[in-house]
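Many introductory courses stop at the sequence. We go one step further.
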Amino acid sequence: MADDLTPPAPDAKNGLPRFVVGMIGLAGALASLVLLREFAAFTAPLFLALNLIIAAYPLHTFLVSKGAPAWVGATVMALAVVVILLLAVGAIVWAVNEMIDVLPNYSAEYNQVMNAIIDLIRKFDPDIDTTGIMDLLKMVDPKSIVDVATGLLSQTYAIFGGVAVIVASLVFFAMDAPGFAARVRLSSKASPHIAQVMQSFSSGVRRYWLVTTFFGIIVAVLDGGALVALSVPLPFVWVMFSFLTNYIPNVGFVVGLLPPALMALLANGWQNMVILIIAYSVLNFVVQSIIQPRFTGDAVGVTASVSFVSLLLWGWVFGALGTLLALPMTLMVKAVLLDIDPNTKWLDALISSNPYGTTSGAVAKPARKPKNRKLTLLKTNTAQP
């Protein structure tokens, strides 16, 4: 029987078995991720700047279409992005400062809540060891949160170093913007498929950022209304937090809910916290699951499981900034490695949220069978001369 075993089919291009080719490709991908992680201090801001320029490029196109010189459109585009970026950084610094000033005032209330939880657990099992539970609860007490926030502010040099890299990258990307349209036309003539894939990637990233930002503002405003109505302290801080965590796929809603829910518990009691959780859940579900898909369709391009894995992967590579860049980075990898190669259309179909609409033509949507075959034949025969 051993003589009947056939060796694995070699790859048509290099003669190596497909398994070996796959392992080499996997090793190359892991090495690339390790290098990106090693130099994340400037690679992550660089990728963020590229995404911001892609998202703002319609502003340049609009100004040029109205008769403005190309360099004016590029300058206005870069200045707009820089102003928005600086406002965002300033808002984050302000929010962290507010948390540092207010949260220590609720340490006594948190200790009362923690003791109540421990007493409740001991009622069910008097012999249970609550040391691990107390250590877990101390991880989210106001003092721990303030320590983390203070540590973030103490890294001001690193934060502004990253902002400086982003701003410098924006300047150079904006300098290239006036000739981008001509380069795309030349690329289309030389390789129509590759140019189409890159244009599809740019439009997908642009749509993702604009859609996420627009509906993030809507969700943050609605959450802010709930916070004010329930008299939760620091409402504007939690509004900012809700808006930022909206960019984190899958788990962003939970991350944005936990701090204001804890604040509602400490300031106003468990009933206030429950009402806030219900309000947040209803508002986010209605906006993001019902309204948003009706207006925007699919702005992500990958399945929910792929987006969750991308969150873990790019968070490991780029840190906190990687959670914001998770989906755009995944879309870029998908465009460069999958959409651009017709041989990978099977994998593109597995990870795409809409396999019938993938750029690489992953799956040909089956044609509908005629409901009445006799009627179709009759129309065909009648149309013949």
